[in-house]
Amino acid sequence: MTKLTFLKLGGSLITDKTRPYTPRLDKLAELATQIAAATRLDPDLRLVLGHGSGSFGHAAASQHWPVNAKWTRTDWRGFAEVWYQALALNRLVVDALHGAGIPTISFPPSATCQANEGAIVDWYLPPLQEALETGIIPLIQGDVAFDAAIHGTILSTEDLFFKLAQRLHPQRILVAGLEKGVWADFPERTRLIEVITPESFEAVAASLAGAAGMDVTGGMRDKVEQMVRLVEQVPGLEVHVFSGEETGNVQRALLGEAVGSFIRR
């Protein structure tokens, strides 16, 4: 499929991660408007959208996620609470996209993915692929999943993109967050890394800081490392990490403009 692009709307972008269960509704509406404009300007663009859990799933996980190896009924209630909060944010994202006139269907990983030791081992994809072929934009999100080895796990949007990219082979993955890109000196933010390759990653890894605010799925270093491994596996793939906070940046990135930091071979 030509021009297949994955776009992640980071949890720090669409929620206030310093305040539990706090969406940024105006930002969601603005982002949806940009996505709609890009699809009108480039009718050949094919998208899979994903979003993080932000202050919804991460806050719930911090409060309710089981810590015991043998889960009790109370632990499973915590698992369900994290699912509920991830779903609550997903509904707000769907509402914003619908309000912008974007045909979207949500495919929650909790209903379609089976994990084992924290990794996806099975994902039933035909409905998602059918939606993509018909011009409906599939939407996935950071979510819980049943796990054959450890009862349950939390899958980040990067985990999902990693698995999905191996099957669908997108040309680009766009990761829109608050930061302009990947900083070599966070939190000072004076040196932006323009290009990261598998060969250069180790040299810059030590300088990559964790996420600001609550995050139970890893900080910037983990996310960049995951994308570095992915570009090694998917021929021709390029990952862009950039700021969605700057108005118009998501539309520009979708239409092919260079913004932020690049991860590529």
Q: Can you tell me about this structure?
A:
There is one protein chain. The chain is an alpha/beta fold and 265 residues long. The protein has one domain: Acetylglutamate kinase-like (Carbamate kinase). It contains ten helices and 14 strands. The protein has helices at residues 11-14, 25-41, 54-64, 73-99, 109-112, 126-134, 157-168, 201-205, 220-233, 249-254, and strands at residues 4-9, 46-51, 104-106, 113-116, 119-123, 137-141, 143-147, 151-155, 172-177, 182-183, 192-193, 195-196, 238-243, 261-263. β7 (143-147) and β8 form a beta hairpin. α2 (25-41) crosses α4. The chain is globular, with a radius of gyration of 17 Å. It starts with a strand and ends with a strand. The relative contact order is 0.17. The model has no long low-confidence stretch (mean pLDDT 93).
Structure summarized in a few sentences:
With 265 residues, this protein is α/β, with parallel strands linked by helices. 41% of the residues lie in helices and 23% in strands.
User: What is the percent of helical residues?
Assistant: 40-55%
Approximate strand percentage: 15-25%
The helix-and-strand class reads alpha/beta
List the total number of helices: 10
| Number of DSSP-assigned strands | 14
| Oligomeric state of this protein | single chain
- Pattern of helices and strands: EHHEHHEHEEHEEEHEEEEHHEHE
- CATH class reads Alpha Beta
Tell me the radius of gyration. Answer: 17 Å
* Unreliable parts: none
- The side-by-side strand order for the widest beta sheet comes to 3-6-2-1-9-13-14-12
